[in-house]
Amino acid sequence: MSDIKNVEYGLEKIFEGAQDFLPLLGTDYVEFIVGNAKQAAHYYKTAFGFQSVAYAGLETGLRDRASYVLKQDKIRFVFTTPLTADSPLNDHLVKHGDAVKIVALWVEDARKSFEETTKRGAKVFMEPTVETDEFGEVVRAGIYTYGETVHMFVERKNYNGAFLPGYREWKSDYNPAPTGLKYVDHMVGNVGWNEMNTWVKWYEDVMGFVNFLSFDDKQINTEYSALMSKVMSNGNGRIKFPINEPAEGMKKSQIEEYLDFYGGPGVQHIAIATDDIIKTVSDLKARGVEFLSQPPQAYYDAVPERLGAHRGAFKEDILEIQKLGIMVDADEEGYLLQIFTKPVEDRPTLFYEIIQRMGARGFGAGNFKALFESIEREQALRGTL
Ligand code: FE2
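Above: inputs. Below: predicted complex with fe (ii) ion.
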């Protein structure tokens, strides 16, 4: 059993007595393959308030790609683009568009993480590899998860450079202020028809995760469409991966639309935590981040009822919440505030969630209907409903 404590998120062990053969310290980085990494980096700095950290490209000796590393509090994003027509990265780009390729997990021992998962059936992406420079060494190893998405294990206890060996520190004269984004709360994967349980079992068997919340198509549906979702968590609760699959409805599910445009399974949204959602969302809007349309008045009229026992603890100004289009949900332990962006690419694929947890550990099940109706309004405009 791992001795990692949940100081960060205040979660107790989700399961006791199970073997945590894959102790995870947190999310290390998320790497995107994009068409133009220089411009993507500029967008994430300008719109989301990420800070310049590191760079690798022609100037550092690479010939085939360039990568920009950005950070905000505990969140680290890497944007990589191919520089030549024969780069294998192009296949990913043509097939999926700008997309998340690597969800990297910070571990104490990358070789052991690789061994434990591959002996349980994980498909190899990268054998354990030691990279060194004047700042020390990093050990990385990667396995495939759903689609072409990869989990990279990163062991960096003997490294004190900017990011990884081969990258140089990126000092920029352009440094927009952060927007209060703190850490990755969860990352959601969309998988194909009837594949959800296959991947739930994969996370249980290969990664030692547990399924701690499930939603079926009776709970997640609108007049037109439906989906099913199961939330997988690692032993210390720091890493949460909900898995969605489409379900039959009168019209096309948003998950189907994603699968069509992404060209298969992939990361649907990244939820990022903030301590002050009103300030963060106001900042993001002022910087041009586009959010889904506001739920109707009836939704806000029902907020006190949805808060139930937590009504007295609710600190925010409901009018301000409504003005920004933020949604409110509650569970036994507390409440949460959340809002969703529109897709950040032209393909209707990856989007972001901004979430503030006030004790609640859920995922906003009480908001699913309002959220999906809002997504359907966008789908209708795209002609994909
Ligand atoms: Fe979410």
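The two ends are 46 Å apart (CA to CA).
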